[in-house]
Amino acid sequence: MGPRDPEEPTSRKRKRPAPEIGPFVLRSLLEDLPLSADGDRDDIEINCVEFLDRNLYVGTSASEILHFFQIPPDPEDASAKPSYILASRLPPAFHEPPTSARPGVQQILLLPKVNKACILCNWTVTFYSLPELSPVFGTTQIRQCNWIGGIDLNLDPRGAEQDGKSPAVTVLASQNKRIRVIKISEDPRGLRVSVIDFPGSMISVRRDSFACVADARSYALLDVDRLQKIPLFPISSLDDSPSGNVGGHIEDISGNSAGGLSRSTSSAQGYPAGLSDDRGHGRSTSLGAFMSGGSRRHGPAGGNDERSGRETPEGIFRERSPSPAVATLHAAQWDLNSGQNANKPLPIPPTVSATTEAPPPGSVPTSAPVYLKPHIVSPTPQEFLLVTGTGPRDPGVGMFVNLDGDPTRSTLEFDKYPDELVVDGRGVGVDPTPTTMDGEEEGFVLASMARDFMEEQRYGIEVQRWDLDPGEAETEKFWLEIPSPNEAEQTARIGLRSVVDLGDIYFDEVVDRLRLKRFQPFAIRSMDASILSLHSVDSRTAMSLERVSGERKLFESSDSLPEGWEEHRNEEELQFAQRLGHCRTHLVAWSGKSIWWAVRNPLALRLDSIISAVIAPRIPNVQTYPSLDRRKLVELINSIRGREAKTETEFLTLGYIRQRAGLLLFLSGLDALASPLSELEYRITEDALLEGGLDPRVILALVPYLRNEILEGRTGIWIHGGVKDVADGFITNSIPTDNPEVMADSVMSDHILHFLRRFLTAWRKRKGFGSIANENEVFKSVDAALLIVLLQLDQSSSPNGPKENSVRIDLYALVDGGVDCFERAISLLESHHRLYPLSHLYQSRKMAGEVLATWRRIIEGETDEGGDLGDGEQRVRSYLAKIRNSALIEEYGVWLATRNPRLGVQVFAEDRSLVKFQPAQVVRILREGAPGAVKDYLEYLVFDKSHAEYINELIAYYLDIVMTKVEESKEAREILAQTYESYRALRPPKPTYRQFITDNMVDEEWWHSRLRLLQLLGGSQGTASEYDVAAILARIAPYTRELVPEVIILDGRQGQHEEALKLLTHGLGDYDTAISYCLRDGSSIYHPIISGTMARESLPSHEQQAKLFNFLLAEFLQIEDVSNRIEQTSSLLERFGSWFDVGYVLRLIPDSWSVELVSGFLVSALRRIVRERSETMIAKALSGAENLKVTASLIEEIDAAGPSIEAES
């Protein structure tokens, strides 16, 4: 089945059957029926078919009913089809028609509710019992009957009466002048008859008491209970003959002729008088007028309809036949215009009267009327679908009317006027009824017709939806032809019928496509070949593939499954899928000698046929890279996007279609001969595969570079059979290549890599979902493959590209988040020389030792392709502060201290570290593992933490460094001497010598160590900092001229202040330091003073300071440079004159000096003397006053105490 395509050549259709993409397909019910009893006739045709309770009834044009009995298939084999045996060949009784035309069995009406069957054969109705078709009701017949039917479609044909009465069914039988309303029950005399005055009716469909009927020219609505009629519209729109019956007049259709069930008596059908008063009044275009006289009634009215007798005479249903001439004329006109087969004439069109009036003289002859076969079906309980047209070879129009006769929906268009018409499905938006509760929701109308294909007329079935508004969705029509290779059957009419019982159809194709089968990628092609290919693509990973193969074999061989488990699993999957292959239908079609079920095309086959229709192999008989119409495949995927499944079968079908369509699109992207997929197509492929839930290992199996990352697990990979066929075909027909460039271009292009990156990343987000089978193996495979893809992409990406667009972010997110394939990930990162991501992988498992070991490898120079570690030593230091493993901290702290002592010391000195070490412990550790870092740690303890107990040890380190340098390097000694000369050459004001050597620092360790040495030697850190002055002096004794500041400090420590001041004044020329020496008694002269102050208790006494200043004055007066001598002496006396005795100074100052040189000192000294004299006088006066105050107080106390007498004892 496929969409309409009249232009397709017939020859092509015969060579290649069209894909069954339509909503219905034909499946064989019975073939090669023995229509002829003797087998000598080929002109016998099937006229009608019915099916009930495994009984198949076939009416033929030879006036026979073939009764077949169904033999059910083997219950153990769900796919087996039933067989049929011919139970009987029944020639129904009939009255000889007035003409020679004998259409044969025209109708088979089954009434399972009362176990009766009504057979219309050659315009004669006879009655039989079910299922064996034994005659009932004696010799009762209805002669000259055009049709029989009109069963209430609102009632279940098998249901029992709810009120407990014996079951009965009401049917309508059409005769030339009236319609008989017959109520049939199981009673052997169960026939009751009433009459409706409606001549020439040919078909009827009834809902409750409302029947839609048609005669040869027009349609009408009848109220069977009230016996009212309203005409609707003509069958042929070209029928312009005058008629007073069409146009909306409500007419009385009650009959007055006798009717009953007795041979000897008859009576007219009686109705209440009140009802007849309302008939025939008013005009209306709908049956709404039926409701004006009272509520609707559901059954015959009145009590006079139960007349009965022991026998029913044959003539009780007999109508007068039309004259032979008129009957022959009408039959010929119907045959000519409708194109019916001569061997299968339809009922004789009715005549208004038994005679034909001659046209009046002078009248103009009119063209013969166009007679079209009327079609009436009822798709819903409230609607009828009627077909009109202009001619049998012209298009037809379907019109919907409700029970009131009003149009309800948009019209339907048929390409040709139908021969037969049936509907299926309750319709979207239509409330279900008890009879349609289990039916499909979508509503379809199937029309049998003949269409022209090129110069050939072919018969088929046109299928379209009746429940869609053409304004909302474009109506799509499908053309269905009988699946017969017989050319004669292709040009034979197709009959359609909705049978009473449902038939079961089994679709092997659905089972084959939807059942799960084991997919074995490594059994299809040799794994050794895959490894060989991978060796040629990337030798870095080759060394780990053999290990992966061994691990896979070991993993899959452990905990072996019981013998025969795979066969058992296959059987279980088959049994499950067999439920999905069962469908049911009540539609049958026939043509020639064959009968088919017209069944809903399963969604899996329908959509799969669409996929198959867009695929064509690029190389004949080779499906490696199928060439397909991507646009149509994308349209298919989009058509089911977001579609919610309503049944289990639909859920599995949609998943399967998404998987197969997405897989084919992906394979199309692998085709090097085709244009690459666009980004949108890759996104659609990704969404289809993810929404379909395809096992990602199937995609990995299609990429040789990733195939060896698959872990099948103990039970393997199970996927839909249709998907497995596609994957197997690709892998089997893949042509291996030893050219790595070709493989890289065709398999691992950036487009495919980015697709795999998104697809696998999306799959990783499903971790923990309980619906994923073999979760452990799936995500191990996914993680390993994603890691390879990201490594490959990162290798080809620009290292300086935008950081937010780099795949490196995804790479680190993958390893940071942890992977299930931990050991495999280690191998991959090692083989790709990506050590820093490897450290992230270890960190995801909290493996601090491996993290540090990996960083150490990078720092020590091992290749790391990414180069993302940055300042590795600093990273190690920071990391050690965050872990609690003291052994690791000690190990890598010592390693770092060996490489970078200053940074390594910070590991043990970090205040924020989670593990604290005692200083003594650290010193011991460093002495054993990193001796070169001990000094740095001691500096930290002394200068940062003020641990004075380590000063002596640190002094020893500094002294060793300085002395080693001075002893070994003449250049160093010259540098020191030069600094002294340079400093002495400076004119005041000048910085101190310490500031001078700091500003003019030599960037060498010994120079820095000397500065720190001076700071420690000249500091005042308390008793804990007392060092061995004599030992130090002995060490530096050979180089006292080069180490002048050190000698000065040591002299001060020994109390040799005069020597110290002499060196400061004459050896260095550092006058400011000399003054500081006097003020501080020689301590802390090279130690930085915080905030420029010292504690008062740490200062020497005024007398001691005065003594030192006297020494300094004597040295200043001996400065060789006269101007410098005068300047420094004058400044000293003026600034610190209060520490000098005037007489002493005057004695020391040479007589040759002018008074002006010391005027400042003298003025300040005199002022000081005057101030001291005044202060002395004031103090004396205050002391006298205080003495008087004390004396007066004593006298007052004596007076208060009074005299006392002391007697001698």
UniProtKB/TrEMBL annotation:
Superkingdom per UniProt: Eukaryota
InterPro entries xref list: CNH_dom, Vam6/VPS39/TRAP1
Native species: Hyaloscypha bicolor E
Compositional bias annotation for Basic and acidic residues: 1-11, 304-320
Main location class: cytoplasm
One GO cellular component term: cytoplasm
Annotated GO biological process: autophagy; endosomal vesicle fusion; protein transport
Domain called CNH: residue spans: 43-474
Protein's name in the database: CNH domain-containing protein
